[in-house]
Amino acid sequence: MTADIATLDITSIAAGGDGVARHDGMVVFVPRTAPGDRVRARLRTKGRFARGALLSVEQPGPGRVAPECPHYERDRCGGCQLQHLTLEAQRAAKAQMVQDAFARIGKRAVALPTVHGAGEPWRYRRKLTLALRRAGDAWRAGLHRAGAPDEVFALDDCRIADARIVAAFHDVLANGAHLLPHVSSLRASIRRDGDDLLLVVEGGMQWPEGRAFAAACPSVAATWWVNDDGRRRLLLDRRARRDAGASFVQVNADVAAALAARVEALVLAHAPATVIDAYAGTGDVAAALARRGVEVAAIELDADASVVSASRLAAPSRAIAAKVEDVLAGLLPADVVVLNPPRVGVAAGVTAALAGAVPRPRAIIYVSCDPATLARDVLRLPGWRVASLDCYDMFPQTAHVETVCELVPEDA
């Protein structure tokens, strides 16, 4: 491996948010750069690729702006990757990421998709997860530095997070830090559910002070502890209305509503009598379709979320608490299948079941938060074509993008 300093012209943004340049026949990835930038960077080369550390911007590109959050440059915060770009430039980069993933990984040529936005590009996050590191009797709570996952800086504010959530974290640390588990590191997440703030603490195997900690944090309505074995326990619940609590929730309510409306419209356009909603969560999509007279089988591994989903569905619709790959084949055929997996995408058994279904579904509506795994899974579905592709800017200031891909049989 060698290191040198070079002047580079940034041409595009790669998946993950790094700027892309070429130097001496190599592809070079330089974080915190923008298309059109001319920069000086220190390169570390290995083989045909190189990583660049930005030294200076000699000439800024047309989409470059000053980052709004002080942590972005001062602490090299890894939570955001694109704060140095205008919102329009961010969305253009995300559209290119999706198109490139389909070409490179999915072996499909697709038109450059539109990236839809909604609501505000700041203070949109209704969930925030912090890393906690013990230093003697005190705790440092913050986010990881970009490119240094073992380093955590103390967080003053997060400009993309709901201000109530940030304030609640400071209250929790001020009131309850001395009661946290006696371990060296933890994770803690606060999410907003209506007017309630819900806290999940992850780490440790023993926490005798857990209930005392929860009682000492009045800004939080409910507190869960997840130990190192993955077992989850409710420590305290002050809420008047209870739901799945610690289960997954989309972090951007405005964009999530626009995306959900698009998914519902795509499903209903195929006039289904039966739908499988895989990775259904608490059943938002399933319940909306069931209200329209569709029979829905909602599959969700999280048992708490599946209970909530079941409470929203009336027979013949039903909720199934299971891994999608374990039960999908037994639930087929169905007129439409909705897939909304986590970032890792679907298991190979899911695409195999869909590829072998007789008769085939009229459509697969795949909602993805990772263009690479989406493209990989589409590659596993020969005989299906991309009928539509829409992107949603669920995470402004970051390199993440949500995609809704409508697949139909090639002979449809």
What does this structure look like?
- By secondary structure, the protein is of the alpha/beta class.
- It folds into 3 domains: 1-64, Nucleic acid-binding proteins (OB fold (Dihydrolipoamide Acetyltransferase, E2P)); 99-118 and 250-409, Vaccinia Virus protein VP39 (Rossmann fold, 3-Layer(aba) Sandwich), CATH 3.40.50; 127-237, OB fold (Dihydrolipoamide Acetyltransferase, E2P) (Beta Barrel), CATH 2.40.50.
- The protein has helices spanning 70-74, 87-104, 163-176, 210-215, 253-268, 284-291, 303-311, 324-331, 348-355, 371-379; strands at residues 2-9, 12-13, 19-23, 26-30, 38-46, 49-59, 114-116, 127-135, 138-145, 148-154, 185-193, 196-202, 222-226, 232-237, 274-278, 295-299, 318-320, 336-339, 363-368, 384-392, 402-409.
- The strands form 3 sheets. Strands 7-20-21-19-18-15-16-17 form an 8-stranded mixed β-sheet, with helices on both faces.
- Strand 9 and strand 10 (148-154) form a beta hairpin.
- The longest helix has 18 residues, at 87-104.
- The chain is globular and about 60 Å long.
- The chain starts with a strand and ends with a strand.
- The mean pLDDT is 94.
Order of adjacent strands in the largest pleated sheet: 7-20-21-19-18-15-16-17
* Overall tally of structural domains: 3
Q: Taking Cα atoms only, what radius of gyration do you get, to the nearest Å? A: 23 Å
Total E-strand runs: 21
Low-confidence runs of at least 5 consecutive residues: none
Mean pLDDT, to the nearest integer, reads 94
SSE blueprint:
Elements: E1 2-9, E2 12-13, E3 19-23, E4 26-30, E5 38-46, E6 49-59, H1 70-74, H2 87-104, E7 114-116, E8 127-135, E9 138-145, E10 148-154, H3 163-176, E11 185-193, E12 196-202, H4 210-215, E13 222-226, E14 232-237, H5 253-268, E15 274-278, H6 284-291, E16 295-299, H7 303-311, E17 318-320, H8 324-331, E18 336-339, H9 348-355, E19 363-368, H10 371-379, E20 384-392, E21 402-409
